[in-house]
Amino acid sequence: MITEILRPNENVISKAVEILNNGGVVAIPTETVYGLAGDARNARAINKIFKVKGRPQDNPLIAHISDLEMLKKVTNNICADVLKLAKAFWPGPLTIILPKSDYICKETCAGLNSVGVRMPQNETTREIINRCGYPLAAPSANLSGKPSPTNANDVKEDLNGKIPLIIDDGECAAGVESTVLSMLDEKPIVLRPGIITANDIEKVLGKKVAIAKYITEDIKAGEKVLSPGMKYKHYSPKADITIVKGNLQDVANFVNKHLEKNTFVLCFDGEERYFKTKCVGYGAKGNAIEQAHNIFSALRTLDKLGAVKVFARCPEDNGVALAVYNRLIRSAGFKIVELGKTQAD
Ligand code: TXA
Ligand code: MG
Known about the structure:
alpha/beta, 5-stranded parallel beta sheet, about 30% helix, binds magnesium ion
């Protein structure tokens, strides 16, 4: 199959809608990462998405909607808090887990009786959903286990020849996937951190929002998880990553003593001179928005440079930075070296 990469325009939107109406899949831009979209009601389309990505069958997809009328179709249970969240954060990078109606096929939700819903910001994508008239199920448009794609070229790297169309609307603004928030119980709980933080959500709802513990901790064998996606090794480049936690000078001393062939450092911008090996920066220290924007492309760059071993500087683990920490710690398979007491540096 030839994969076309096209900038959005009227014709391209019509082409995408036609493919989707025929049960096909299309890579679409969103403000977080690129998605691989198909008709959320159509089991055949959904199976294609799972197959193209090599995605485990028990990991549910997010349904992308273009207006609140569509929300009413995918769930029969919209409480006042959900409307508050929709008003405050949609269109935007928040996925809300709600009880599922029968409108969406069971394959989209991997057999769960809940559904993740979000209204993306990208106007071309919303226009496509609007013209389709049904929600689009869309996981990130990478091969399962690889870093999520933040531009059309990343999608091409993973899916060239496997899908007919990639809509290229440039770099994604956020760079990490949406915040996933479960509203199934009385107490809202963040299942995946993103640019919208638990604190942002608390301000809107006026109540406490919990954060799932596996966001920062590995899941033990047999442990039940609320979000199946968290079970899998994720976001991994080919290189073996270790996070080194400590102040810059201590980290540099440690890394410089442990250099092997093709060892790289994933550092904060401007720190390159401290390390006696090649470095890839992922944003300024303390600038979580910038780090979120760059983290996945930095992981892909390490692959392209042939990194075998990578030592990574540790992001903060709160606020927006928690999203970066969560992606990095998973790409490192939870390997962290802690260098004594961390002093401010
Ligand atoms: O920003 C995003 O969310 C991107 C763009 C394309 O919208 N999509 C995305 O999809 O990241 P995906 O499939 O890569 O990640 C969806 C996450 C998975 O961890 C999945 O387990 C979780 O959301 N999820 C989806 N439906 C769920 C449900 N009903 N209950 C619990 N977790 C759910
Ligand atoms: Mg994904």
